[in-house]
Amino acid sequence: MKVFYFYAKFRTLVILHFFLTNRVNSRELRRVVEQAIEDAEVKPNTIRFFRGAMFNMINIALTEIDVQARPSRATYALAQWLEERNREVYPKMEG
């Protein structure tokens, strides 16, 4: 099973959502972001992401939401978080 990871960090809130590859689209992403914003204590005004290839889909997903998409290569927290998951979470997962 292939999955697409959506990782967003709102100050101290981190959202992770797994999408099946046949469900990766702006509509599904918008649904996840809207739910995350609804659950957040403070509404974000910017979502940063690191994959430039995802800009179009993310931008489309956020057009009806009052949140700006901003590409960023400053992903130190994401890199650290992924390293931790590679050590502690993924080895315990099936498949």
Could you walk me through the main structural features you see in this protein, from its secondary elements to its overall organization?
Strand 1 and strand 2 form a beta hairpin. Helix 1 crosses helix 2. It is globular, with a radius of gyration of 14 Å. The strands form two sheets. It has a two-stranded antiparallel ribbon. The chain has a two-stranded parallel ribbon with strand order 3-4. It is 37% helix and 25% strand.
Mean pLDDT: 79
Q: Uncertain segments of ≥5 residues (pLDDT<50)?
A: none
Number of helices: 3
Question: Helix and strand succession?
Answer: EEHEHEH
Q: What is the chains' assembly state? A: single chain
Question: What form results from the Cα inertia axes?
Answer: globular
Question: Order of strands side by side in the largest beta sheet?
Answer: 1-2
Radius of gyration: 14 Å
The biggest beta sheet, please?
Answer: 2 strands, antiparallel
Tell me briefly what this model is.
The protein is α+β, with helices and mostly antiparallel strands.
Give me some keywords for this one:
37% helix, two-stranded antiparallel sheet, alpha+beta, 95 residues, two-stranded parallel ribbon, globular
Q: Helix and strand layout, with pairings?
A:
Blueprint: E1 3-10, E2 13-20, H1 26-39, E3 46-49, H2 55-62, E4 68-71, H3 76-88
Parallel strand pairs: 3-4
Antiparallel strand pairs: 1-2
Helix pairs in contact: 1-2
